[in-house]
Amino acid sequence: MAWLVLVFAGLLEVVWAVGLKYTEGFTRLWPSVVTLVAMTLSVVLLGWAMRTLPMGTAYAVWVGIGAVGTVICGIALFDEPAHAARLVSVALIVIGIVGLKLATPH
To answer: Which of 2, 19, 46, 89 could pair covalently with 9 via S-S, beta carbons 3.0-4.6 A apart?
Structure first.
């Protein structure tokens, strides 16, 4: 259960990271509200997952999901570059996330 909560927390990190782009410096009300709610829920769920998962693993997986998801959203939503070096780098992050999951006994 903690792993599912952690994955959801990581996905919420993607929501707030992308949301920051739409807030235009927190000058737009609804994107700002969505971003702040996603930030809060993401951190709360991360804290909940850390009750049973090792802190270092949970934090690294949370950040990794957020980073990979944000890069993918940047490519899909904002026409950011998707050149080979960038995609290989994202793949290495995914490999690291999977490795941490496999190395954690929960």
So the answer is: 46
